[in-house]
Structures are given as C-alpha cells and as structure tokens.
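Hi everyone, sorry if this is the wrong subforum. Our group has a chain we'd like a structural model of before ordering constructs, and none of us has done structure prediction before. Sequence below.
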Amino acid sequence: MSRYVRTRYNVNKTVNFRSLSDEERRLIYESALEVLERTGVMVYDEDSRRVLEEAGCWVEDELVKIPIGISDWAVKTAPSKILLYDRDGNRKLDISGHNTYYGPGPTNTYHQDPYTGERRRPVLEDTRRVGRVCDALTNIDFVMDLGTPTGVTDTIADVYAFKELVENTKKPIVHWGFDIDQYQDIIDIASAVVGGLENLQKKPFMFLYSEPTSPLLHSREAIAKVYFAAKNKIPIVYTPCVMSGATTPASMAGTLVQGISESITGITVSQLTRKGTPIIMGGVYSIMDMNTTVFSYGAPEFQLLQAGIAEVAHYMGVPVFGTAGCTDSHTMDGQAAAQAAMSILMAAESGANMVHDSGYISAGDTGSLEQLVLDDEITGHIGRWKTYLFK
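Answer:
Right subforum, don't worry. Here is the predicted structure as tokens:
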C-alpha cells in the first residue's frame, strides 16, 4: 500500500472535448426559448396550431409565439432516453447520454453506381443494395436509404424505399415520408412486420423523420408529421438543416440559437400532443460555400456546429441527431477520407447519439456505398481506439 494518499483526485475516463462552456450552453438554450416567445415561428398545420393555442401560446393566423414556460416544460418532459430495437424485437440502441451510433442518410438526388462509378438517379435496386450492405457492416448501427428511388410511382417512392429496407436489413431504420398518408402506409408496413401497432409502439424498430424549413418555418407537412407521430406513439426525429449566413445569422452562436428554436417547436408540439412522446432533436448545421453556394459538409464550421448542437442537446437532456461520415468530394480520395474521419471523430467526442449521413459525397448530393464502407472502417477504428483507451 502506498504511503502517499491523494485527496481531491479525479480520474478522467473520457476525452475532455468541449467546444462550449456550461454558461455558453445555457445562454444558447435560453436564447432559443426567447426567440420562440418574442419572434415566434410560422406553423402551417391546423392541428399543431390548435394544440399550441390550447396550451396558452399566442396564435395570430400562422404565427405562433410560445411562452418560455411552455417550451421549457416541453423540453423537460421529453424523454432523455429512447430504446430502439431491431426487426426481430431485440434491443439494439440505447439512445441516451453520450452513446453514439452511426448510419447513412436519406433522399440523395443521385447515386454512385458501385459497379461502374457512374453518377445517376437512384433506382429501387440501389435501395435494396443499401439495406443489404448496411446489414453486413459491423459499425453501421441503423439504416437510411441513401437516395430516393426513381422508376416507381413518384408519390409513394418513400413507401417503396421503406419496404425494400425492411426486407433487406434487420437493423433499426430511420425513414422519411412525403406526407401523412405515406407515413400511415409506412407505419402499417412496420406494424405488419411485428404483429400489430401495439407491438411496434412497445418495441419500435423504426423512427419517423421530418425537417422544418429555416428560418423558423414549420410547413404543414413537416410539423403535421410530429403531431401524427405523437398521436400514434411512434418516435420521430425532428431536425432542421440550417445554413449559416444564408438561412440563419452568419455567426455560429446565432445559427445554433435559431436551429435549436426550430427543434424546440417540434418538441413542444409532440409533448403537448402526447406527454412523453420519444423525439430526437439535432440536425445538419453548416455554412454556405461562397464559391459554389452549396451547403458544405466538409467545412471546419460544420464540425464546430455539429459539436455545438450536441453539447446544447446534452444540456437540455434531449437525445440528439448528429451528422458525420460525409464529404464535399465527388470521388473516393484523400479529401473524402479526411473530411469523413474528422466528422466521425467529432461526433464521437461530442457525444452525438444517432449520427447520420455516412455515405454522403458531393456535398450531400450523391449517395455512395464506397464511401459508406470507408466510413464503417473509420467508425470501427475510432470505436476501437476509444474502447482501449478509456476502459
């Protein structure tokens, strides 16, 4: 036994990565609440406006101003822990704390053919292949489609995509839909797979997905999906895609404030509709590349904003949807590897919970299975490093 006794001694078991102080996180969160009360948001869904007005929000036509007491209550009421299962009902993801899981993204306009390298519009076979590849990759934890399929009825392409994913992977699925009718079809398919809606509610193997429109606009289709998910006891991801200097203020703090206020609107509608509805905030935060006017997935500001949203979400106690494994590069090269690695590491260090857009190239315009496999390797490398270093 050592003759020296250490007092007031702490052992660091995780990386000390912080981009924001506790005071900065508090100020950003409280500023987002203030935006909702003073500026308000445009809500274009009648049911959502009714729920907000009945709770005490100020409603004038489509403009809704949400008192801080209501929005803060909703954030504190939303679950801080969500369990997601696989298709067979086995528990797979504990979405809470700093647990981090990775998956691809949805709705790319183009797909990189894995055999010819051609950049073309996605077809249903691509969706099928994405499901199978994701199912085989060790470090990919959930599945999205990597491209909206063409060659099917346009208005239900989302339903076709979900059917292909369900048939070709057992892993949890995060899926989008055009509107409520398609959401209902998607839930009906998922319910049939597990033997009924109640079984799906008890052990969900899929999240619905929706996005507001920055700045501070919640289209009928977007916010109605939150209301629909809450009524059906189905978890949902509600995340804005904000572009600093274009759809948000130019400052990174202002971008975080606006994007978080948009997420809190969805949280408020969900909790007022059904208290305890599982909902994930977060989103894709970056800047506009002034050379091309495209949304940059490789900018250093992208990394900082993604870390910032994760840290504020942890302060709020709400699970967060992150973004990583993506690149502005159009091909498999050093740029693609470097940008993907930096974003995956940043997501792990900041503790984002569900991290999507692995497999994105061309600034998110194209889905690539080659990039997805590379991201799987990078994710495994970072996961192994953290396991050895901190356990």
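For your construct planning: The chain has twelve helices and 19 strands. Residues 5 and 11 are 15 Å apart (CA to CA).
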